[in-house]
Design goal:
By secondary structure, the protein is an all-alpha fold. It is built from eight helices and no strands.
Length: 192
């Protein structure tokens, strides 16, 4: 057990930080973005080592979008400290996001299949595209981000088991369940 912990400490630390990030996301706390940045830095290393290049590139994106989300959530607060309100997608924005997901998928797939030694470029690209869009939606505080995360996280479970990243696979099982909880909590808070 100690050998396992010593060998996988980066992945275990990243998973713990990611759980803190998820909890703070569900509770709609601005500090979630700090944990998003730090956990992403750990996962850059993990995904590079396991050749999950789309996921690795996502971590760089997560660092940048976390800074944006932090500013957006902080600046969205009113002077009396009320938080940025939760919003819903319009039909028009839904169509744009579906189109953006398709384009991002194609770009990821072309890069991964042509320029890397990725062993699963199609699945890695799909998760990458969903994750880019889902994180942008979270930064904009759109409730439907949780629905995107349910799909993306469930796909990740299978991918991480395939790559024998068991702590990360367990993390994404929890993420999948908690994305459902997040949707329910945000929905409940919207109707209050």
């Amino acid at each position: 057990m100690i050998t396992y912990l010593q060998t996988n400490w980066i992945e275990i630390t990243g998973a713990i930080l990611s759980l803190i990030y998820l909890d703070l996301s569900i509770r709609q706390r601005v500090s979630l973005w700090f944990y998003g940045i730090v956990s992403s830095l750990f996962y850059i290393v993990i995904f590079f080592q396991t050749k999950f290049y789309a996921d690795m590139s996502l971590q760089f994106y997560y660092v940048v979008i976390s800074i944006y989300g932090w500013m957006n959530w902080k600046n969205g607060q009113s002077e009396n400290g009320e938080e940025l309100p939760t919003n819903q997608l319009s039909k028009r924005l839904t169509l744009y996001l579906i189109l953006a997901t398709g384009i991002i998928y194609i770009v990821y797939y072309l890069i991964l299949s042509q320029f890397t030694d990725s062993t699963i470029p199609k699945a890695d690209s799909l998760v990458g595209a969903l994750s880019v869009v889902g994180t942008w939606m979270l930064a904009r505080k759109l409730i439907e981000n949780w629905l995107v995360w349910i799909v993306a996280d469930a796909l990740c479970v299978a991918l991480y088991v395939y790559k024998e990243l068991y702590p990360t696979a367990i993390l994404f099982v929890i993420y999948t369940v908690m994305a459902g909880v997040g949707y329910w909590q945000w929905r409940k808070k919207m109707v209050e």
